[in-house]
Amino acid sequence: MPFDFLACPACGAQVKQYKNPLPTVDVIVELPEGIVLIERKNEPFGWAIPGGFVDYGESLEHAAVREIQEEISVQLEEKDLRLLGCYSDPARDKRSHNISTVYVAKASGTPKAGDDAAAFAIFPIDALPEPLCFDHARILSDYRSKKKAGTI
Amino acid sequence: MPFDFLACPACGAQVKQYKNPLPTVDVIVELPEGIVLIERKNEPFGWAIPGGFVDYGESLEHAAVREIQEEISVQLEEKDLRLLGCYSDPARDKRSHNISTVYVAKASGTPKAGDDAAAFAIFPIDALPEPLCFDHARILSDYRSKKKAGTI
């Protein structure tokens, strides 16, 4: 169903709006001790790779750097982002059809709670917490496979 | 500017709509003689990698297979799509902020004009036509580099 409806603020009539999938980015931030995951404050509850929506007029790389700064106060460089993959199953997020482009980036320094932050923690890739939200278990499984193969 | 406005069909008032970048896919279709490019019938004129918009509720891979069927009547398999990269510079398409996820896929058979088709032709990767639309010269340069390095 590629349409939904907005209410006209003047007369209340329904106004048809074309719907597209929503671009998002997630970033697997690599620290010497492991990767950073966020504990979500809202549904779906559980652990998630930090990330968020891409703004209109903003590149994927810009969104990735901005979201990581906002969520865990870690400054990344666009040039250091490595593309892991794109995840677009319409069922991957029950809230809306969100397409995630997932990057991996090495970071230094110590994360701290940013403006948007819930709790975060650092996990070795072979000792991840449960539950993982959305399709993040699959994404992290792909990450682990590529990491072990030396291809990311 | 993350908003634009729709006109209410009942009273003509302006209705604010949140804008997101629009997900698209492009596919570099590899045939024994070269890759398939489309000659665009509308502005911007020139040669382009076949592709199009991703529908709400449709995965990137599904959109890639569907667009190639519609544009050049070539049947691809989702499992044969290899991810080349994601191109999201807001200036890459003057019409709107379109984010392209670009795949590469080997194909057999003979393309023919599909429902949406303009002219198409097959080009060896070292003898591409001009002008190439959007940022497709950059995408094809990345493709050629990765092809020569054996990484795609």
Automatic annotation (TrEMBL), chains A, B:
GO terms for molecular function: hydrolase activity. Keywords: Hydrolase. Residues 20-148 form the Nudix hydrolase domain. SUPFAM superfamilies: Nudix. The keyword Hydrolase applies. InterPro entries: Nudix_hydrolase, NUDIX_hydrolase-like_dom_sf, NUDIX_hydrolase_dom. It holds the Pfam family NUDIX. It comes from the Bacteria. This is NUDIX hydrolase. It comes from Geomonas paludis. The lineage of its organism: Bacteria, Pseudomonadati, Thermodesulfobacteriota, Desulfuromonadia, Geobacterales.
